[in-house]
Amino acid sequence: MKKIFLPFLVVIISLFNQPVFSQTEEDTPALGLPGDNLDLYAVLSLFQKSKTIEEFEKNLNLKETGINNLDLNLDKKADFIKVVTKKDGNAFTFILQVNVNKKETQDVAVILVNKDKNGKVSLQIVGDEDLYGKDYVIEPATKDTPSVTANPAYTGSNPVTVNVPATTTVVVETQPIVQYVYSPAYVPYYPPYYYGFYPPYFAAFTIMAVGIYRHNNWYYHGGYYGGHYHGGNNTVIINNRNQINHYNSERNRSNTVSNNRANGSYNTTRNNSTRPSAGTSDRHTNRSSSSTRPSAGTSDRQFGSGSRGSSTSTRPSTGTSNRSFNTPSRSSNFSSGHAGGFGGRTGGGGGFGGGRRR
């Protein structure tokens, strides 16, 4: 009996030890940049489904939609992303922005909607270079339409009278948001929000771990072309170069974001590293690591971390001081949350009443 039971027990234990979120072929490589916490594939999909700009802004920032996981000021709370609209003729530029603090604004991405002289509308989203790297462009993927050839011998009641060639066009003219911005009913939207003053529906929820967030949103990637097109597999170009050049001339950049990126605070993909020294220290700089520093010196210091893990250092000493310092974490992706589909409410911007950030 024991011989029969043991193999089943081994199988059951092995199943429980499997990772909850497995790597799939749809997953895209992490950037190691803050853009890993805002999936632009999901953002563009939400934009296409929205009826108004206010509705898009609201659903983008609702916890229930699971799209916004951005934390540029590293307070472990989701940043409110406002949508600023600029219009030049038939070209619309929708700028996604975050007020990092009272004095600094950081552009996150820009959605380009443009209608050419033939009435064809193009749609693209371009990630800001500080958050996604250079030339990160996503657009709806083309869908091949098979050719149709009329059969002259057909005797049924519904004959095909026109031969239709195969096409690879993307039709965005019928999407609700496109119809709205090009309709006489469109009224430009100017968000009244700023740092510390947000709409009542926004609660500055705790961000989730980047691995869980990315897994929750990978299914949006199937209907789009995207990524870095310089040296990448996909050749994607800006549909309206003058439009993006004009945007770049007025682009908002935050010194806080630049400094956090420079010192690696946003990089959740870096490997654990140990830097042993022949001198008096052996330091580990990762989120959940420990370091032992034996010494015959005069101090015993312990460094804690405000993140998910802690880093401790022990230095036995025969001296006279024992100090403990707590330092805040610079990493933002240590809390776990829940993200679902577009389960949030739809409608307008929820009024101009403001809620203080908690």
Strand content: 15-25%
The tally of strands reads: 12
What number of domains?
A: 2
In whole angstroms, the N-to-C terminal distance is 59 Å
Helical percentage: 10-25%
| Low-pLDDT regions | 15-26, 271-358
How many individual helices? 8
Largest sheet: 6 strands, antiparallel
* Class computed from helices, strands and strand pairing: alpha+beta
**Main sheet: which strands, in order across?**
1-2-3-4-5-6
Structural notes for this entry:
The protein folds into 2 domains: about 30-145 and about 165-260, no CATH class; about 275-325, no CATH class. The protein is an alpha+beta fold. It is globular. It is built from 8 helices and 12 strands. It has helices at about 1-15, 40-50, 55-60, 130, 175-180, 210-215, 240-250, 255-260; strands at about 80-90, 90-100, 105-115, 120-125, 135-140, 225-230, 275, 280-285, 290, 300-305, 315, 320-325. The strands form 4 sheets. A 6-stranded antiparallel beta sheet has the order 1-2-3-4-5-6, with helices on both faces. Strand 3 and strand 4 form a beta hairpin. The chain starts with a helix and ends in a 31-residue tail after the last strand.
